[in-house]
Amino acid sequence: MTHFFDRIPKIRYEGPDCTSDYAYRHYDPDAVVLGKRLEDQLRFAVAWWHSFAWPGGDPFGGATFERPWFGDTMAHAKLKADAAFEMFDLLGVPFFCFHDADVRPEGASFAESVRNLEEIVDYIGQKMAGQRTRLLWGTANLFSHRRFMAGAATNPDPNVFAYAAATVKSCMDATHRLGGENYVLWGGREGYETLLNTDLTREAEQAGRFLQMVVDYKHKIGFKGTILVEPKPQEPSKHQYDYDVASVYGFLKRFGLEGEVKVNIEQGHAILAGHSFEHEIALAASLGLFGSIDMNRNDYQSGWDTDQFPDSVPEMARAYYEILRADGFTTGGTNFDAKLRRQSLDPEDLILAHVGAMDVCARAFKAAAALYEDGALEAARAARYAGWNDPANRTMLQGATLEEISDRVLRDGIDPKPRSGRQERLENLWNRFV
Q1: 333-373 pLDDT, tens per residue?
Q2: Residue 294 is labelled as binding a ligand
Q3: What region does 155 belong to: left with phi over 0, alpha with psi -120 to 50, or beta?
Q4: Which of 145, 154, 258, 340 would you call most buried, defined as having the most Cβ atoms within 10 angstroms of its Cβ?
Q5: Residue range(s) occupied by CATH 3.20.20.150 in the chain
Q6: What are phi and psi of 70, to 5 degrees?
Q7: Residue 86 assigned as binding residue
Q8: What does the pLDDT average to over 52-61?
Q9: CATH 3.20.20.150 is the classification of domain 12-374
Q10: How confident is the model at residue 191 (pLDDT cuts 50, 70, 90)?
């Protein structure tokens, strides 16, 4: 026991009229929505890095948080794990996610770092045996240490490539041992600062080979989870190769991996790429790549990734509607890749940030589910494309030649007139539910 959360009661669903801070108003894990428990629809996860490892710094100032587990020893790492599972129990979350550097101290050598990881994985496994919280996904931190300043898989130094590969192997082993349902690769520095010293072709080939090795190792060890790539356009690099979902798809196609790898989409990264969250989810689903999401938000007055907890029901409803259209999560889930503000110092702040975020997501999901179940929006979508159901029109996509189509236009006197897209009507329909 850490006693860090001693003053905080276990969070339970008490309904929308509840006035207590320490309760869920909209997230009832056992409520059945579209045939599944809400917990199984949303699959909430807590991010180990922001919740327990982040010290509260920003580009202009150092740490503001004081936590009893901050330190570089295995004793500190185990105390951090104790605090994490105390928080998981208070919130009743089904999942968590971690990087290797979040859970273990850096060793004096790679071998020592691996030993530290293996020891803490054993400890986390013991904690999991006594609780219901499971591992949604694991990943490797290939961006914080100075050795990765020029990338990991794309680094010009082959020794860094080798070190990164060995690190990923150790993290995949850890994820597999803990029963993780996915393994994520985030290319935090897989990009460039300037083209003056960058060979784009070489770096792409290195990244492609790296991911092929990850997929091969997944099958070798019998890992049944999903390999996920997380897109991000820039920051810390000027340009990152996994810019957005479309860029990731092109990369996967180039290296023959589109059937093996899916995407973990973050709301904040979608915004940085100039897209909406729902666009990236819808595109991933269209391409057969949708896997999981990191739920957070950016400050729209800031040009960087602020990783704030979600607070907008309409925004989140758009995202969950597209997830429903993609048939929901399978191995993926809703990971809160979000951190407290630097002035939110208290243990209560960490708990209540997650309580509010889970309520926002639950309320948004239920609104999206009601609209999806109503069917009016999907009926309007189908009606817009109904002309393609005509056999003569289907043939245009099934082998008709340009000459044959031209002859048909001339023969039948085809002279199409524009038809309304009815956008405002559909927005009004949407707003009746959200």
Answers
A1: 999 999 999 999 999 999 999 999 999 999 999 999 999 99
A2: yes
A3: beta
A4: 154
A5: 12-374
A6: -70, 120
A7: no
A8: 94
A9: yes
A10: very high
